[in-house]
Amino acid sequence: MQPATSAEPITSREAAVEADRRDPLSAHRDAFVVEESGPIYLDGNSLGRQPRSTAPRILALLEAWGRELIGGWDHWIELPVRVGDRIGALIGAGPGQVVIGDSTTVNLYKLAHAALDAQPARTTIVADSHDFPTVRYVLEGVAGARGGQLRLIDSDPVEGLDVTSVAGALDPDVGLVCLSGVNYRSGARLDLAGAAAAAHDVGALVLWDLSHAAGSVPVALDDDGADLAVGCSYKYLNGGPGAPAWMYVRRDLQDHLRQPIWGWWGRRDPFDMAPGYLPAAGMSRFLSGTPAVVGLAGIDAGLEEIEAVGMAALWARTARLTDLLAQRIEVRLAPLGAHLFSPTDPARRGGHLGVAHPQAWGLCRLAIDRGLVVGDFRPPDVVRLAPVPLYTRFVDVWDAVERLAVVLADPDVRSPPPRRTVT
Ligand SMILES: *Cc1c(COP(=O)(O)O)cnc(C)c1O
């Protein structure tokens, strides 16, 4: 894993303003819809900001639908593979290994089943007890339906998993190891190459959930021995709410795996309408039904700024932003009873940080209600803050922590409104 790059430390608000002025990446903020009088948005790991190019792109699609009608499918049909390849390029996957369709949850289900079907003698799935809920639920369902078992590693909620504890959970019954590249709550990064090597040592396949990694941290799927991976498009990839998810299957596995939802869109020659299911060659076999074309247009627009900057430069800025955030949390929020709920070693961190405090819900809710800072709350007591590098300034990080300190010192933080459905 690449360590964080360190430039001069930022120790004053003026230095933060100066860091913004000097960084050529600062200009990319203008490519996003930002209401400057609005709160500081540190929730781009949950829903990325809207690129200015998204609305024109989606309008062009609507216009094409109006004009071309069914004929539009001549070019829409390629979108799942074409946009998939562009996501692949951001996560170290050569062309023809990423396709877009369905949600991350459904893709996890498809690939977990496919992996286990390919090795029927192995009935155990290994996963992380602190992984994102959908990962645990889907795997619970998959293991249950097959009469297999789900073995959850009791990971450290802050530091995440190391390769030794992954290796310690493995034996020849294990068919699949399914873990996240970046933990959704603490931001802890997994050593994907090391974990893949450990899984392969016992003959298991790996399935990575990269929802909090793709478009944020460096990922090298082909080089690091990944077999399968899935992830969202609406977080760091800026595809917009409900944008369809992507999946990766290593090239030499594709023709050996069968996903369980046999729809016409994954069949060889779908428009033959022929009897019987025959899986298509390559990644198309992992599709099931008609692709979400409007959502794909959103992803197409969302990727542009990331591609223009490149993952290496983005990650370098992310590391500086999260370093500053960690340092300000320590200086301003620790004296008020908060602590960093993320690895202290920058090399083990992803693109967001957690802050734990008994009044985390009140802190998060009041900061939003007062129009100050948008983060999000994750039970039991964590506020997540993501300084997404394309549109978050160093001064935003500085000011956000100052504002959070004011809220945390306010007695009202102890009597917040009740939790809402979406937080
Ligand atoms: C956000 C997230 C998801 C979301 O899955 P959906 O099917 O899009 O709701 C899945 N896995 C992880 C690790 C996530 O962070």
Walk me through the structure.
It is a single chain. The protein is an alpha/beta fold and 423 residues long. It is built from 13 helices and 13 strands. The chain has helices at residues 13-22, 54-68, 73-76, 79-90, 104-117, 133-146, 163-168, 192-201, 251-254, 293-309, 311-333, 360-369, 394-409; strands spanning 40-41, 98-100, 124-128, 149-153, 174-180, 205-209, 228-231, 246-249, 339-340, 353-356, 373-374, 376-378, 382-385. Bound molecules: pyridoxal-5'-phosphate. The site of pyridoxal-5'-phosphate (PLP) has 13 residues, from helix 5 and helix 6.
For the CA atoms, what is the radius of gyration? 22 Å
Beginning-to-end CA distance, first to last residue: 31 Å
**Which series of helices and strands comes N to C?**
HEHHHEHEHEHEHEEEHHHEEHEEEH
Beta-strand residue percentage? 5-15%
Helix and strand content put the structural class at alpha/beta
Large-scale geometry: globular
Outline the biggest β-sheet.
Answer: 7 strands, mixed
Strand segment tally? 13
Mean pLDDT: 96
Ligand inventory reads:
pyridoxal-5'-phosphate
The proportion of residues forming helix, as a percent range, comes to: 25-40%
Number of helices: 13
As residue ranges, the low-confidence spans are 1-6
Main features:
single chain; 423 residues; alpha/beta; seven-stranded mixed β-sheet; four-stranded antiparallel β-sheet; 13 helices; disordered N terminus; binds pyridoxal-5'-phosphate
